[in-house]
UniProtKB/TrEMBL annotation:
The family this protein is said to belong to: Belongs to the glycosyltransferase 47 family.
Domain Exostosin GT47: 100-398
Name of the molecule in the record: Glucuronoxylan glucuronosyltransferase IRX7-like isoform X1
A single GO molecular function term of this UniProt record: glycosyltransferase activity
């Protein structure tokens, strides 16, 4: 209302201004009028002449409409290649759509880069499987564009985590760099888009301990670094810390580790998130009783060892060191779920705790958590400094006596659960949607800044 009134006031002012200038301009107008008819005639002729040329091409063979749009594409490609700043991300005016009309082109790579690996069922279900889930979700989504010339981003679907070791069953990611490098070689030789932007509008998933450094041990990961060819691109990665780190020195979006939504649904069908919780503190996982100093580092920086030594005889702590397939049924029975660092700060426990309604107790200094605008982490979790892990029981007792109920109420908001799970077809607010939202925000930024 206020704005409306202001603008009509302004117009009144404008009209008054014009009236006072009217006489002064009268003379000027009379001279202009002499030429006015000729000017009008000239422009009308020009207009009709050009529209004739456009609708009647000199070429006698009338070509289908497609050709016109192709030549428009070729023109755009030309503009793009000569001035990438200008049109790397086209401007969007759709303010209602939170995804801003985002368009993503998904490369069609030979099956050895992706679908062949799916013959092993584990490939689409283990903790690094977001590389599969995001690809699947994009293939069926509205943001997928089949016209690469109108795409804002290019998704490179390479599954690097499904070569499971025959020794210990863990994903062997030693081949990740060469597999990705050869995929980039293919796309950059067939299509112009990689060279056009030097990969900067290309998106990869690197869902490993240290993201695109592709190694589980931090010192090795840092020594190897991010492959040179990926350094301009956007990496979707589970790894994130609040301080400078060579393995996140690249445009990145922190994403949640993959937890199968079906497994969560099955667990919740048997025991609802707001049901009875008879375990006070839960942790199941690798715990070195006497941690080895591997290449100058202790597993979990000894945090898990301290937890074990201090609390394994405390009956309120349910601590287990061995794998158990049904562990989700234990999480849904627990009040607090410990999420200490392992080799890397992040862990799938974080997602499992949240989606199964157990308050995550994050013990990983400086960790950067996924989707901070969608998930109010400070309202749904507890953070305990690594050095304070010995005081765990008194910290949790204090929370239990004060704000536990408030934290649980926030935690059981279904929107939070949705944001951390990858649905096969994108649902508004789910994990893939949050990624698209983060990418769409980058469109704003590059339109706004439009330099460099
Ligand atoms: C690219 O486009 C921008 C914005 O239109 C312009 O300022 C700049 O001079 C152009 N650069 C080149 C190399 O054409
Ligand atoms: C899978 O990993 C093994 C080593 O664990 C390696 O020898 C093999 O070449 C890898 N396979 C592919 C297809 O990269
Ligand atoms: C992109 O650049 C590479 C290396 O300079 C070159 O080999 C390749 O042919 C280029 N791709 C296209 C489509 O021009
Ligand atoms: C995806 O979302 C739909 C609708 O919310 C739901 O019916 C379906 O079970 C979900 N799929 C998975 C795999 O969770
Ligand atoms: C761990 O081992 C490295 C050598 O591998 C050594 O330099 C370092 O001092 C050891 N750390 C501790 C705490 O013992
Ligand atoms: C609950 O209390 C703890 C410790 O007193 C505090 O760190 C945390 O921020 C509180 N959380 C909420 C959601 O009030």
């Amino acid at each position: 209302m206020v704005e409306l009134r202001n603008s009509s006031n302004n117009r009144g002012f404008y009209v008054r201004m014009r009236l006072s200038h009217k006489q002064a301009r009268q003379q000027e107008k009379n001279t202009l009028f002499k030429y006015y008819k000729w000017v009008l005639w000239f422009f009308l002729t020009l207009y009709f002449f050009t529209s004739y040329l456009i609708s009647h091409k000199p070429n006698p063979i009338s070509k289908p409409h497609v050709v016109t749009s192709k030549s428009a594409m070729a023109f755009r490609a030309l503009v793009d290649s000569t001035n990438s700043t200008f049109s790397k991300y086209p401007r969007r005016d759709n303010n209602d759509d939170p995804l801003k009309g985002l368009k993503i082109y998904v490369y069609d790579l030979p099956s050895k880069y992706n679908s062949d690996w799916l013959s092993n069922e584990r490939c689409s279900n283990h903790l690094f499987a977001s590389e599969v889930a995001i690809h699947k979700a994009l293939l069926n989504s509205d943001v997928r564009s089949f016209d690469p010339y109108e795409a804002d981003f290019f998704f490179v679907p390479v599954y690097v985590s499904c070569n499971f070791s025959t020794v210990n069953g863990f994903p062997a990611i030693g081949h990740a760099r060469s597999l990705l490098a050869s995929a980039v070689e293919i796309i950059s030789s067939i299509h112009p888009f990689w060279n056009r932007s030097r990969g900067s509008d290309h998106v990869f998933v690197a869902s490993h301990d240290y993201g695109a450094c592709f190694h589980a041990m931090e010192d090795r990961a840092i020594a190897d670094g991010i492959p040179e060819f990926m350094k301009n691109s956007i990496i979707l990665q589970t790894f994130g810390v609040k301080y400078k780190h060579p393995c996140q020195d690249v445009e990145n979006v922190v994403i949640p580790p993959y937890i199968s939504p079906v497994s969560v649904q099955n667990t919740l069908e048997k025991a609802p998130a707001n049901g009875r919780r008879d375990i006070w503190v839960f942790f199941r996982g690798k715990m070195e009783v006497n941690p080895k100093n591997v290449s100058g580092r202790y597993y979990s920086k000894k945090v898990r060892t301290v937890i074990w030594r201090k609390y394994s005889s405390d009956r309120r702590f349910y601590l287990q060191r061995h794998r158990y397939a049904g562990y989700q049924s234990e999480i849904v029975r627990s009040v607090f779920c410990l999420c200490p660092l392992g080799w890397a700060p992040w862990s799938p426990r974080l997602v499992e705790s949240v989606v199964l309604g157990c308050v995550p107790v994050i013990i990983a200094d400086g960790i950067r958590l996924p989707f901070p605008t969608a998930v109010r982490w400070s309202q749904i979790s507890l953070t305990v400094a690594e050095k304070d892990v010995g005081k765990l029981s008194s910290i949790l007792e204090h929370v239990g006596a004060t704000n536990l109920t408030a934290i649980q109420r926030n935690l059981w908001d279904p929107a939070t659960r949705r944001a951390l799970l990858f649905n096969d077809t994108i649902q508004e607010g789910d994990a893939t949607w949050q990624i698209l939202h983060a990418l769409a925000k980058r469109l704003d930024r590059s339109v706004g800044v439009s330099s460099q």
